[in-house]
Design goal:
By secondary structure, this protein is an alpha/beta fold. It has a single domain, classed as Aldolase class I (TIM Barrel, Alpha-Beta Barrel). The protein has an 8-stranded parallel beta barrel, surrounded by 5 helices. The protein is globular and about 50 Å long. About 50% of the residues are buried.
Length: about 300
């Protein structure tokens, strides 16, 4: 990173846990505003640093443009937390349109927009982000999530993108091994780097220099307690806060059904009225009903102890 780029870089995104907001639906498939309000107010009550709305686990790709604005509006009206809005499109013009809609909906509550790396070539990504920033003025969280985007970019190329893009305030590193990528990025550029993937690698990511987590989990207060302890300099306490939840984190992150599991666990915790998902997402498998109940019962028993 050149001295000039470093001097003009936007402020890094705040450290902590940015809760990735799942979009609740009614059994009839409509957006459930009441459940959404409960979720975002719960995130705020447990100490989240901010909310990431319309991400992959927000099923943004299954929402219409007006529904996306509805979700953003409900979140903004019912929480005081800063908002990062996810951008679904990998192409520049529609990505700009999504961001302009988000800006019109939430105004200065929009802290940044989360844009996925849309090429393995740093030149292509740099141009994509530059055009987005010139058109909208928005700070960018650069997301590297090849499982969702289908795009793989090397860590060195990702760093080159960030070095050339002073409006990037954070990177969301979700290409395993995430701790390796986080260590390399934080050693080179002065942006916040967050892990995701439901918190599976959170302790290692924090040890590698992450600013926290930008992810969802059915017990987000566990992630907040862990990250808060770590950022306060108490690694032992951070580990103690997270370790009891690792079996549930592992259960929830099963490929292909992770979204359905999280929604069902939110329902069982009283945050969502329904665990409904939209196609092509898979629904909650009935075969896991008793296993999910056992996981939650074990956590309840630990709290009693």
């Amino acid at each position: 990173m050149t001295e000039n780029t470093a001097a003009h870089r936007v402020e890094p995104l705040a450290r902590g846990v940015w809760g990735v907001v799942a979009t609740p639906f009614t059994d009839a498939g409509e957006i459930d505003d009441a459940s959404l309000v409960r979720l975002v107010q719960f995130y705020e009550s447990v100490g989240a640093a901010g909310l990431t709305v319309l991400g992959v686990f927000g099923e943004a790709a299954a929402l219409t443009a007006s529904e996306r604005m509805q979700v953003l509006g409900v979140v903004a009206e019912n929480s005081s937390l800063p908002i990062v809005a996810g951008v679904t499109s990998l192409a520049t013009a529609p990505a700009i349109a999504e961001i302009e809609n988000a800006q019109a909906t939430v105004g200065d509550r929009l802290r940044a927009v989360m844009v996925q790396a849309n090429s393995g070539s740093p030149a292509v990504v740099i141009d994509h982000l530059r055009r987005i920033n010139e058109a909208t003025g928005a700070d960018v969280v650069l997301q590297d999530y090849p499982k969702s985007s289908g795009i793989s970019i090397s860590t060195d190329n990702l760093i080159a993108v960030v070095e050339a893009s002073p409006f990037v305030s954070a990177v969301k590193a979700e290409a395993p091994p995430t701790a390796v990528a986080i260590a390399r990025i934080t050693a080179r550029v002065g942006v916040s780097v967050f892990g995701g993937l439901g918190g599976q690698g959170l302790l290692d990511e924090l040890a590698a220099g992450s600013a926290g987590a930008m992810t969802g989990f059915s017990v987000p207060e566990a992630l907040v307690s862990c990250v808060t302890a770590w950022l306060a300099g108490d690694a032992e306490a951070a580990r103690a806060e997270l370790v009891p939840y690792l079996p549930l984190i592992n259960f929830e992150q099963q490929p292909g059904i992770a979204l359905a599991l999280r929604k069902e666990l939110f329902r069982r915790r009283g945050l969502f009225a329904s665990a409904a998902v939209r196609a092509p997402a898979a629904g909650f498998p009935a075969e896991l009903d008793a296993i999910a109940a056992d996981h939650l019962a074990e956590l309840d028993a630990q709290e009693v102890r």
